[in-house]
Design brief:
Length: about 150
């Protein structure tokens, strides 16, 4: 099944939003297969956001992501990349609908709490960047037949 890389950024960790964010993905039915708390190096942050290298906001973005602890996660399930983005909301929290993570918790673009992969290809790249293969758990939740027909 499809996987997405979901990460609570330093602002979300400082603000104590980790539990709520995990709860939303769990309640939706997505399976947590990887999780770690780390302070990313500037190098890792720059690699993660490589698509934005050269843009005016890139240096600030890298500084911010590497400024504190993040919670890096991999969730698995049907359409998790697209649904994850819907649950997260728009890049600008002020443009995010209430009920989304950014729409419920954020104000500024540079403090938008959470990252989610924007495509299946990005997800594969990001998961390989942040996790080793043996850090991802292979298991089948007993709830699976109660989530999928
Ligand atoms: P991520 O899930 O973090 O990748 O956000 P996103 O996919 O919604 O947005 P995108 O990948 O385009 O941008 C990555 C991050 O850069 C965003 O989450 C913002 O924090 C920041 N960012 C994007 N565009 C701008 C911008 O125009 N100005 C500023 N200051 N920051 C931006
Ligand atoms: Mg993005």
């Amino acid at each position: 099944r499809e996987r997405s890389f979901i990460m609570v950024k330093p602002d979300g960790v400082h603000r104590g939003l980790v539990g709520d964010i995990i709860k939303r993905f769990e309640q939706r039915g997505y399976k947590l297969v990887g999780i770690k708390v780390i302070v990313p190096s500037r190098e890792l942050a720059a690699k993660h956001y490589a698509e934005h290298d050269g843009k005016p906001f890139f240096p600030k973005l890298v500084d911010f992501l590497s400024s504190g602890a993040v919670v890096a996660m991999v969730f698995e399930g049907k359409d998790v990349v697209k649904t994850g983005r819907t649950m997260i909301g728009a890049t600008n929290p002020l443009a995010s609908a209430p009920g989304t993570i950014r729409g419920d918790f954020g104000i500024d673009m540079g403090r938008n709490i959470i990252h989610g992969s924007d495509s299946v290809d990005s997800a594969m790249r990001e998961i390989a960047l942040w996790f080793k293969a043996d850090e991802l758990a292979d298991y089948e939740p007993v709830a699976t037949p109660w989530l999928y027909e």
